[in-house]
Structures are given as structure tokens and as C-alpha cells.
């Protein structure tokens, strides 16, 4: 029973803060352990990756524009907002909680930012810091009511979801709209790296990935914990180099429709990747991240082991709301304006992105990269159906069906994992 628990469960955060899957060894041992997890129902992001491949093949067959360089860059820009919101929600979903107010929190933050900057002439960095402060304070408020008072997160965040829509109307004004006049912020979703910048980004990714891997190995060796085979590190780096190289090469092609060349990796890509790496580092390589997984797996057991459950929940909601403001900033940068509806309709899509990517609604299982992959799946559906000129209703129907399918896979996989554990 012990061996099954180590291979199929999340890493035990109460024993150590060292990263590990619970199964070390060479490539063969890793593949065998992965296949055991899949057979027991823990498929991770595998269904989402399969769906992404199928959708790519389908839309590339139905539309000649889907796999063009221009649409590829456009798809990444479209997905960035949802990727960021999905990653924000992962921090609370891992706890078995929910934040329905994440979207409108970002909307209120952006409304306050644009009014302070446009109407009152406050410098944009200060106004933007005020906006992020709104996210931080909102997360702290939610965390207080959920962790201290004991109100279900669904109820607290639903109340804020309704109330913040009114607050955005008060700040912006009914029917009001402000244009963002900050070139630095508009460039987030509309600017591109120079051609050499894309290759520099890939080099940094490889260096950071290698450095992180070697640091993990050094820590595990010092602690007397077994390491995986060194060949796995080189395989990971080779995969990043090949896939990243293909992406950079495609995005460096001229996708302009005039004499002015438009080429380079969209600026939003390295920004999103940096936040993804930082969040993954927190969840995988810090005691706080391991506590999040422990609470999501069994909150009472974590509490009895000495974990400060209330404190961890409080900080998880703070991180979620703060990242939600970043998501709203991406959205505002793309459209170039702020109105009272910013963030109103995206939160459920954010939850869908996380669940489709393999993050469990029941807590304790999932990673930030899973939410990013799920967001790409949803963005691919929206983008592909748009190229086919199908009605928006079809988009909602397909997205809803994918979400139900993903939730069903999650529920069935948990039943299978439980049964496998009991049989052991």
C-alpha cells in the first residue's frame, strides 16, 4: 500500500520541501510509474494535450488560415488573459476552494487604475500599483471570511462578484469608457520582441531550466534523497530546445500584411512564461506550496500535522486575486480601453481552463502548467470557430461540452484512484 501511495499521490509536503515525484530512477522507471498513474486515473494534462492536438489537426484541415504565422501569434495573444486567470485560480482550486470574483476584481483594479491615471493625472506606475493593491486587499478580505469566519468561498466570492460589478460602475460610470494611453502597457499585448530577442528568450529558458534542475539535484544529494537519472535532465532540455526553437522560428517569420514587417515573439509570451515559472517554483519547491497540496488532499490531516491551514488559505486567496489583476491588465492591453464590464464574463472560462487542463475541482491535484494548457485548448476552440465564421453560441456549446467532459474525467479518475488504493 505504501508504494502505491507514493506513486499515485501528490508529494508529501509535511516530510520535506524537496521536489520529487515519489518515484526516482531512470527513464524506464519513470515511464512505468507514469503509466501506473494513468491506469489508476491520474492522467494529469494528458487529455488536454490530446485535445489540443486533435483541435489543431481539425481546424488546420477546415481553415487554411489556422496554422499561419499571423494566426499563431494571434492565438498566443488571445490565450494570455485566460492563461493568467487560470493560473491564478489554481492556487485556490488546489485547496478545494473557488474564487468567482477573480475576474471582476481585476476589472475594478483596472477601472481604478485608468481613472487615477486619466482623470487625476497620477503617474501610471503609481496608479497601476494601486490597482494591484486592490487585488491584494480583496484576496485578504476573501481569505479572512473563508479561513477565519468560516464562510464557504463560493458564497463570499459570489457576493463580491455581484458587488464589484456595482463598484466598477461607480468608478467608471454607467456606459463610460476610458482609453488606455500608456504605450508601455499597450505594448504588452501589441508589441513583439526583436528577432534576436526570441532566441535570447529561448536561451534564458534553457539556462533557467538547467539551473533549476541542477539545484534540485544538489539539494536532494545533500539531503540524502535519491535523484533521477541525469539523462532525464538532458532529455527535458532537449525537448525545450526543439519545441521552443520551432515556436521561435515560426514567430520570427514576417506576418505583416503591408510593407512594414511584423515579426518576432509577442512580448506577452516571455512575461507569461516568467510568471508561470515563478508560480511553479512556489508550488513545487517551497514549503508553502507543499502545504497547499496537503490541505487540498486532506485539510484535517494537514492541520493535525502542524500546518497553519488558515494562514495558507489566506495567502492563497491573496495570490489568486493579485494574479487576477495581471490577467485583467493583459485584457485591457489587448483592447486598449477600460469599461465597467472588464472581467465580468471571464471567470468561469478561467475555471474551465484549469479543469480542462487537469486541475482537480476537489483539490490536491494539478499544476500551473495544466491551467495554461487548458487555456490554450479553450483559446484554440474560440479561435478556430471564429475562423470558420460560426456563431458565438456554437463556441459556448463546444466549450461547455469540453468542460463537462473534463470534469467527468476528473471525477472518474478519482474514483479509480480510490479503488486502486483500497485494493492495495
List the topology elements.
Blueprint: H1 2-8, H2 27-39, H3 46-62, H4 69-93, H5 102-118, H6 124-149, H7 153-172, E1 177-179, H8 183-190, H9 195-223, H10 230-251, H11 268-285, H12 287-297, H13 299-304, H14 309-335, E2 337-339, H15 347-357, H16 368-387, H17 392-423
Antiparallel strand pairs: 1-2
Describe, in plain words, how this protein is organized in 3D:
There is one protein chain. This protein has helices at about 1-10, 25-40, 45-60, 70-95, 100-120, 125-150, 155-170, 185-190, 195-225, 230-250, 270-285, 285-295, 300-305, 310-335, 345-355, 370-385, 390-424, and strands at about 175-180, 335-340. By secondary structure, the protein is mostly helical. It has 2 domains: about 40-190 and about 285-420, ABC transporter involved in vitamin B12 uptake, BtuC (Orthogonal Bundle), CATH 1.10.3470; about 190-265. It has a two-stranded antiparallel sheet with strand order 1-2.
| Fraction of residues in H or I helices | over 70%
CATH hierarchy: architecture of the largest domain: Orthogonal Bundle
Compute the separation of the termini in Å: 5 Å
Please write the CATH class name of the largest domain: Mainly Alpha
Approximate shape: globular
The low-confidence parts are 1-16, 419-424
Give the oligomeric state of the chains in this entry, treating copies of one chain as homo and distinct chains as hetero: single chain
Q: What is the CATH third-level topology name of the largest domain?
A: ABC transporter involved in vitamin B12 uptake, BtuC
Main location: membrane
Membrane topology: Multi-pass membrane protein
GO cellular component, one term: plasma membrane
Keywords: Cell inner membrane, Cell membrane, Membrane, Sugar transport, Transmembrane, Transmembrane helix, Transport
